[in-house]
Design goal:
Helices cover 38% and strands 15% of the residues. The chain is built from 19 helices and 13 strands. The chain has helices at 17-23, 108-115, 120-123, 149-154, 157-172, 182-196, 208-219, 243-259, 262-268, 271-284, 306-316, 320-323, 326-336, 340-354, 359-369, 381-385, 392-403, 436-443, 467-477; strands at residues 44-49, 56-67, 77-85, 97-100, 128-131, 201-206, 224-230, 287-292, 299-304, 423-428, 449-454, 497-499, 502-503. It has a nine-stranded mixed β-sheet with strand order 1-2-3-5-4-6-7-10-11, sandwiched between helices. Strands 8-9 form a two-stranded antiparallel ribbon. A two-stranded antiparallel sheet has the order 12-13. Helix 5 (157-172) crosses helix 17 (392-403), helix 6 (182-196) crosses helix 7 (208-219) and helix 10 (271-284) packs across helix 13 (326-336). It is globular and about 60 Å long. It starts with 16 loop residues before the first helix and ends with a strand.
């Protein structure tokens, strides 16, 4: 997902108030956010379509104009794309659910179009509100295809810097890239809340969206009723340096599960051995593959190298259903020379994600909120270089951020949270992007909380069986106290495929 490729970007503590001010290259927004003034927001019937055209959801859509720079309300305006999916009940409850997407760079409307079923229980009684964060979707999008994950892995340092400079110049002609960060986005959220007439709202954030949700609580606690954090980024965390280590650990978890599964072990032995052998081989000599593109059906040729393998490995660890194919695909490639399943998976991933993420907005966020603080961390480059992702991505981010305008970040942005807003935290037991330890750290900031860890699952628990019920009951109760979460102990990850026909009978 960009830094998380998913869906999923990040940071740490500043030492003193003076140092905080110095570390923020642009003028920080005031610690006391100004009350949002109700603005004109008219909604009309619309459809929210999945970017791949898979699904469409009926909704009401509108545009809210806001100042690009909140400190200059009469300055240049940008348009926020807002959608509301009305509650089913005619006696709907007054506190809507606002959904915050990940990335950073994904639009909330696109995310919801692919996950609406998971919110159906909540929508029975509450409106669902979607605000495409500034820089994404229909809200003054900041695309930058030349700097997607594949490009930054494939290009050398001079070409990455050149692409970043060109992209920043192009986007900067119609936008001040300093004002497309989380600290500004939470003010947009509250303006939408006020414009739609909600007093208090519930929040659901996934991955990077958990960062937005927590910062909204910091700025506007009086307007938050409950918060659900799915795949948690702790406020004190910088995202990036641990990414490769977390991804490698999650991959090892999948292989360990295979060796403890009778059918998987019988068919594939030790998939870790296949992985290391294949990784060494394609790092030396890419393999020419011809196959039908899974999206178009057209005959496609590509050289399958470490770049393609890393993409498949990373995204295959995001969900147990994708992970169920991994030992088989590695075995077919290593032992039969059949790279078509791995190549098809790569093409499907690449086509899906690159259409959903605004990399210009992603850069504005991470170049303000994460990368500048890498120098505060002790980064073990030797350990990173042993992973399949290596140091390439964090090196690329540092190069990009040398030339990207440094954005706005509130002085207390990375300080620990202290909130009385009831919180439900959701973690996958084998998450490659936001490990459960992140949620343990974030949970300390909430006095009313429940932390659900779903064994063996990856990144984002929204579609895991029974989680939709837990979320609905949590919001209805308005507290995490005495919340029954026992159903997750019955969850089992998808069984491993032992052939292209499916799992063993």
């Amino acid at each position: 997902m960009p830094l998380l490729r998913t869906l999923t970007s990040r940071c740490a503590l500043l030492l003193v108030a003076l140092l905080r001010a110095c570390l923020t290259s642009g003028p920080a927004l005031g610690a006391q956010a100004q009350p949002a003034r109700p603005a004109l927001l008219r909604l009309a019937p619309c459809e929210l379509e999945h970017p791949l055209g898979i699904t469409a959801v009926a909704a009401e859509c509108g545009i809210l104009s806001v100042a690009e720079n909140p400190e200059v309300p009469t300055g240049r305006q940008i348009e926020l794309h807002v959608a509301r999916v009305p509650a089913v009940s005619r006696r709907k409850l007054p506190d809507a659910l606002f959904i915050l997407a990940g990335g950073p760079g994904q639009a909330a409307t696109q995310f919801y179009a692919g996950t609406a079923a998971a919110f159906a229980r909540i929508q029975r009684d509450r409106d669902i509100v979607l605000v495409d964060q500034r820089g994404t979707g229909g809200s003054h999008p900041l695309p930058c295809a030349a700097l997607d994950d594949d490009a930054t892995l494939a290009l050398d340092a001079p070409r990455i810097e050149q692409a970043a400079r060109q992209c920043a110049q192009k986007l900067g002609a119609s936008a001040d890239l300093r004002f497309f960060t989380t600290s500004v986005a939470v003010q947009d959220l509250d303006r939408v809340r006020a414009a739609l007439g909600y007093g208090r709202v519930n929040l659901y954030g996934i991955s990077y969206g958990t960062r937005i949700a927590q910062h909204y609580l910091r700025r506007f606690p009086q307007h938050a009723r409950t918060v659900i954090l799915d795949g948690v980024v702790a406020p004190t965390e910088y995202l990036g340096p641990a990414m490769a280590l977390d991804a490698e650990r999650a991959l090892g978890g999948i292989f360990a599960r295979c060796t403890h599964d009778d059918a998987c072990r019988e068919h594939f032995g030790d998939p870790q051995a296949d992985y290391h052998a294949l990784r060494a081989a394609v790092s030396q000599t890419p393999v020419a593959v011809e196959l039908a593109d899974p999206g178009t059906g057209a005959t496609t040729r590509l050289n399958f190298s470490m770049l393609q393998l890393a993409t498949v490995l990373r995204l295959s660890t995001y969900s147990a259903s994708q992970a169920s194919l991994l030992p088989l695909m590695l075995h077919l490639a290593q032992h039969d020379g059949n790279f078509a399943p791995l190549a098809a998976q790569f093409l499907a991933i690449e086509g899906s994600l690159n259409q959903q993420l605004a990399y210009g907005m992603h850069n504005s966020v991470v170049c303000a909120e994460d990368v500048p603080f890498y120098r505060r961390m002790r980064i073990d480059r030797a350990a990173l270089e042993q992973t399949y992702l290596g140091t390439t991505q964090i090196d690329a981010l540092e190069i990009i951020c040398r030339v990207w305008p440094r954005g706005i970040m509130d002085p207390d942005f990375h300080e620990p949270m202290h909130s009385s807003v009831p919180a439900l935290l959701l973690s996958g037991g084998n998450d490659p992007a936001t490990p459960k330890e992140n949620a343990v750290e974030a949970a300390r900031g909430f006095s009313d909380r429940a932390h659900v860890i779903v064994p063996e699952q990856g990144h984002g628990q929204l579609t895991t069986p029974c989680v939709d019920d837990i979320m609905a009951r949590f919001i209805t109760a308005g507290t995490a106290k005495n919340l029954d979460i026992s159903c997750v102990t019955e969850d089992r990850p998808a069984p491993f495929f032992t052939s292209l026909a499916g799992p063993a009978p």
